[in-house]
């Protein structure tokens, strides 16, 4: 029944790919099949994190159904991106699906960009490390990220900034905090035997993101935080002081725990658990809060779906044994849904076109 529903849903989504380039629209009307993009997204562009975060699901659906159509759609996106000129080796967040040109040059490992990079790595992992093209794209991308976006603050905190209009903005979003876990996950198999380096980088990002929590009144992290002058890992603008039950920091704690078993990650996760329970629990569930620096926070009255799918799941896994969903056998998609690593040498399905 779930397979049938998945195929029906994918069939409704496929018209989104009917663009001159094959880069899908952000939205598609499920009845008419007409697609469009967000009005605010750089002159009608599609968004990197949206069209770049289909690979795991579509490839797995081709595997389940034996129908290569889904696999072909996402591989076409990859081929197009490989051919494109990338400023400083970085992928801008906006790509116009009509012209095939980048929109404004804004690069981020946080919102608008984040899961594209994650899916390059995870495509390789999910394929039982056979998809070496995805691994190469990941390695190239993180080398460019480290060169152009990763910086150390005056106070010694490693952060990932955002490239905007030719300069680096010394600001990191809560969403970007997932990258600590990504660097750790990609350490094994990294280029030039730099596994130790990337594990260390993951640990430094985890530390910075923990500081963004620790420097608030509620011990919950803000949506974005600056590294300017005397201000480090602290939100400056009112509209960046909110916490909406986001999982990225805890996700990184979990990966770091799995790879290092350093007890501080469980300690940090427990701090976050207690803060969420104390400040976000309401009679009907859990709510985001509008200002993590206020001792009497107001609720936003929303329980985001990722709170159950990710935040609580990563906390549960952080305090579970490693044999629950071991990383050798499972790869988590960007919403923390586990998909199996397909060891296709030992299955009868290796004739599947998606994995030839």
From TrEMBL:
One of its GO terms (cellular component) is endoplasmic reticulum. Disulfide bonds join 177-209. SUPFAM superfamilies: Seven-hairpin glycosidases. Its cofactor is Ca(2+). It is a single-pass type II membrane protein. Transmembrane segments: none annotated. It catalyses: N(4)-(alpha-D-Man-(1->2)-alpha-D-Man-(1->2)-alpha-D-Man-(1->3)-[alpha-D-Man-(1->2)-alpha-D-Man-(1->3)-[alpha-D-Man-(1->2)-alpha-D-Man-(1->6)]-alpha-D-Man-(1->6)]-beta-D-Man-(1->4)-beta-D-GlcNAc-(1->4)-beta-D-GlcNAc)-L-asparaginyl-[protein] (N-glucan mannose isomer 9A1,2,3B1,2,3) + 4 H2O = N(4)-(alpha-D-Man-(1->3)-[alpha-D-Man-(1->3)-[alpha-D-Man-(1->6)]-alpha-D-Man-(1->6)]-beta-D-Man-(1->4)-beta-D-GlcNAc-(1->4)-beta-D-GlcNAc)-L-asparaginyl-[protein] (N-glucan mannose isomer 5A1,2) + 4 beta-D-mannose; N(4)-(alpha-D-Man-(1->2)-alpha-D-Man-(1->2)-alpha-D-Man-(1->3)-[alpha-D-Man-(1->3)-[alpha-D-Man-(1->2)-alpha-D-Man-(1->6)]-alpha-D-Man-(1->6)]-beta-D-Man-(1->4)-beta-D-GlcNAc-(1->4)-beta-D-GlcNAc)-L-asparaginyl-[protein] (N-glucan mannose isomer 8A1,2,3B1,3) + 3 H2O = N(4)-(alpha-D-Man-(1->3)-[alpha-D-Man-(1->3)-[alpha-D-Man-(1->6)]-alpha-D-Man-(1->6)]-beta-D-Man-(1->4)-beta-D-GlcNAc-(1->4)-beta-D-GlcNAc)-L-asparaginyl-[protein] (N-glucan mannose isomer 5A1,2) + 3 beta-D-mannose. It is found in: Golgi apparatus membrane. It is an enzyme of class 3 (hydrolase). It comes from the Eukaryota. The keyword Lyase does not apply. This is alpha-1,2-Mannosidase. Keywords: Calcium, Disulfide bond, Glycoprotein, Glycosidase, Golgi apparatus, Hydrolase, Membrane, Metal-binding, Signal-anchor, Transmembrane, Transmembrane helix. Ca(2+) binds at residue 334. The gene is Man1a2. InterPro entries: 6hp_glycosidase-like_sf, Glyco_hydro_47, Glycosyl_Hydrolase_47, Seven-hairpin_glycosidases. One of its GO terms (molecular function) is calcium ion binding. Its EC number is 3.2.1.-. Belongs to the glycosyl hydrolase 47 family. One of its GO terms (biological process) is N-glycan processing. Its main location: Golgi. Pfam families: Glyco_hydro_47 (PF01532).
């Amino acid at each position: 029944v779930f397979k049938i529903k998945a195929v029906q849903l994918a069939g409704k989504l496929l018209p989104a790919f009917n663009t001159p380039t094959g880069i899908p629209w952000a939205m598609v009307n499920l009845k008419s099949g007409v697609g469009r993009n967000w009005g605010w997204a750089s002159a009608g562009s599609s968004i990197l994190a949206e069209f770049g975060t289909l690979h795991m699901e579509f490839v797995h659906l081709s595997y389940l159904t034996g129908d290569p159509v889904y696999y072909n759609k996402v591989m076409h996106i990859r081929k197009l991106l490989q051919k494109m000129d990338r400023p400083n080796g970085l992928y801008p967040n906006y790509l116009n699906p009509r012209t095939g040109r980048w929109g404004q040059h804004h690069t981020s490992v946080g919102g608008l960009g984040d899961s594209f990079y994650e899916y390059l790595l995870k495509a390789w992992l999910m394929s039982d490390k056979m998809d070496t093209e995805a691994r190469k794209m990941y390695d190239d991308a993180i080398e460019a990220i480290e060169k152009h976006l990763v910086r150390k603050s005056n106070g010694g905190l490693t952060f990932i900034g955002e490239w905007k209009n030719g300069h680096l903005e010394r600001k990191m979003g809560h969403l970007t905090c997932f990258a600590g876990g990504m660097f750790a996950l990609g350490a094994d198999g990294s280029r030039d035997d730099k596994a130790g380096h990337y594990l260390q980088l993951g640990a430094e990002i985890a530390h910075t993101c923990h500081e963004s929590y620790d420097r608030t009144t509620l011990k919950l992290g803000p949506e974005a935080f600056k590294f300017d002058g005397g201000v480090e890992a602290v939100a400056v603008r009112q509209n960046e002081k909110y916490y909406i039950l986001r999982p990225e920091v805890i996700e990184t704690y979990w990966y770091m725990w799995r790879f290092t078993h350093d007890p501080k990650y469980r300690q940090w996760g427990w701090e976050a658990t207690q803060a969420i329970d104390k400040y976000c629990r309401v009679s009907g569930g859990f709510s985001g809060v509008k200002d993590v620096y206020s001792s009497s926070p107001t609720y936003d009255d929303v329980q985001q779906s990722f709170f159950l799918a990710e935040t609580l799941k990563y906390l549960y896994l952080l305090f579970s044994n490693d044999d629950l969903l071991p990383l050798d056998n499972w790869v988590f998609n960007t919403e923390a849904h586990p998909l199996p690593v397909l060891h296709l040498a030992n299955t009868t399905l290796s004739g599947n076109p998606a994995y030839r």
